[in-house]
Amino acid sequence: MNQSFNTNSQSLNDWLSYLESIHPQEIEMGLERVRNVAHRLDLLNDLNNVILVGGTNGKGSTCAYLEQLILASGHSTGVFSSPHLIKYNERVRINYQELADDAHIEAFRAIETARGDIALTYFEVNTLTALYLMKQANVDYVILEVGLGGRLDSTNIVDADLAIITSIDLDHQGWLGDTREQVAFEKAGIFRENQRVICGEPNPPQPLLNKANELACNISYKGKDFSFVPRQDDWQFIGKDNNFNDLAYTKLPMTNASTALAAFEALDLKLPEQAIKNVIRETSLKGRLQKVSEKPAVYLDVAHNPEAGRYLAAWIERQKANKVHVVCAMLGDKDSASTLSVIKPFADRWYIAGLDCERGATASQLFDSLGVASASQFDDVVAALEAAKRNAHQDELIVVFGSFFTVAAILENNNLVELT
What is the Cβ-side half-sphere exposure of residue 293, based on CA atoms within 13 angstroms? Predict the structure, then answer.
């Protein structure tokens, strides 16, 4: 334990700064250290109905849909998701409510005492904090979003009652591998013997299929056991036991809504069809096609890899805007060239910005990846959006995307956010 830090501090920011300092690396894959501390705090016993949500994209929105469905059915929930956009408290929700600073500080203090000389990463402490708070609240359903991969991610210290894989694509190649097969192997690491699994990936690579078969998982596959059918003004869910028609289009992907509905079906919870339709229509998530200004319309999205870029591109195309202004800032370790290439056909004017953080790409690096001579370059994303708003007519569309850091920079600027 670092004796120079005052563990009696009631400042959440002081605690977060300290927790970032206690491990020399931002990421250290492996479960032994974090599991050891969890056992010391007895965090892995008596957790009710644990749901582990992994995948490349769509984890956050799948968690949000499932959370609202379970709450609507009359049960309590705890949700752990990451990263946060504005404040740390966003990472843990109990019955859809964020918790006060002192609740997190109490959990941090308990973990700090229990860990002794075990060095934990920031995310490992986050995971333990979520489990501590959810166990205290004795929630009926625990929903945990996997941070990175699955097999060696700290959330995998739990033996989940239900595992969900939302999608499989390339991201975090330095940790997860350069092929979909390697990524699938890591994602499938959250499976357990005879476990119920929902797979929202329509084309799962063989290693995922192999692991599900090896462990005799009770797995439901999208396209085989459940599906969704887009229609002109609405969409349909077709499940194992239930079909729902006339579901509303929302700003969150219907593919993730259908995965959440399949998971809800697997939980064997009951909810009237109209209540289900209400949940699908009303569920939203910060930073996912979030509208922050009306004229011109400004939308923020955290899309930061090719798969998320393809969904964003399809959404832009459906808007049929007279002109589309695109503001982009990304991290330097992302596949910016592939991500930008899928957006490029739908952008009329580009505003490229640097990100002022340790892993941030510079505007010139993104400019080179984009390969559009007319793109404007800016030092930061706020300046880029301000320029876009000056240039855009009131009936045109502005889309800001590329990273959680990108979206957070806009949400923290009151002059640019008119709608909340």
Answer: 26
291 bridge partner residues: 299
220 with 304, same domain? no
**Could you tell me the two tokens for 57?**
């994209």
Query: What gap in Å lies between CA 29 and CA 153, rounded to an integer?
Result: 6
Per residue in 257-306, pLDDT (tens digit) is: 999 999 999 999 989 999 999 999 999 999 999 999 999 999 999 998 88
Phi, psi of 175 (to 5 degrees): -110, -30
Domain containing residue 246? 12-282
Residue matched to tokens 């670092």: 2
* Model confidence pLDDT, tens digit, residues 201-228: 999 999 999 999 999 999 999 999 999 9
Contact 387, 314 (CB under 8 A): no
State both tokens at 228.
């969704």
Residues 398 and 402: their CA atoms lie apart, in Å, by 14
Q: Output the domain CATH number for residue 115.
A: 3.40.1190.10
Helices (H) and strands (E) in the chain, counts: 15, 17
Q: Which residues contact 138 (CB under 8 A, 6 or more apart)?
A: 48, 76
Does the reported pTM lie above 0.85? yes
